[in-house]
Write a structure and sequence with these properties.
The complex is a heterodimer of chains A (113) and B (116). Chain A is mainly β and 113 residues long. Chain A has no helices and nine strands. In chain A, a hairpin with a 6-residue loop joins strand 3 and strand 4. The relative contact order of chain A is 0.34. Chain B is built from no helices and eleven strands. The chains are: A mainly beta (113), B mainly beta (116). At the A-B interface, strand 4 of A face strand 4, strand 5, strand 9 and strand 10 of B.
Chain lengths: 113, 116
Amino acid sequence: DAKTTQPPSMDCAEGRAANLPCNHSTISGNEYVYWYRQIHSQGPQYIIHGLKNNETNEMASLIITEDRKSSTLILPHATLRDTAVYYCIVRLPLNRNTGKLIFGQGTTLQVKP
Amino acid sequence: GAVVSQHPSRVICKSGTSVKIECRSLDFQATTMFWYRQFPKQSLMLMATSNEGSKATYEQGVEKDKFLINHASLTLSTLTVTSAHPEDSSFYICSATSSGTAREQYFGPGTRLTVT
């Protein structure tokens, strides 16, 4: 699976958009980009994923560059409860032998009042 | 999303004893389950992949005789830490995925193991 690079930490003001970048320059054609987050002492929570097109759901938006070498997770209106470690992961489609999620160090997002 | 539970949420055991941690998918059938370990201020480290009805596949450096994984049914996987030592104290997290169209991995809440 391709490796990702994320900034170790970011701050965001409450109510503003949080834009979390991720570089995955060695991503292959059939690897997806996944975002999870982990609030302190809890299991990771799925946020969103995409292959080529931009995606949006009730939690966030995912913007993937045309060359797929980087992406940005956007939390449109960050709240204090969004303070967490955000992980960007690329992986192959899941089947019995592939699709493992390999976690990097992630970005610690601190939302401030 | 789908719900994955873990039991117990916290456990304290004495050095040399064995501890079993259960991971259950509550509202879907999990053909594949994953076990992770997380030390303080570190990221999750994948320990093993468990497919229902077959032996678990362990990541490099993970002792399969120390961390016994059983995935006997489509809703339950267990991790047994045998002959636990203080260095095994960690946060153990499982995740599960189905074979249907919704192929996401859903994570359990984690189990905090402390070995004294």
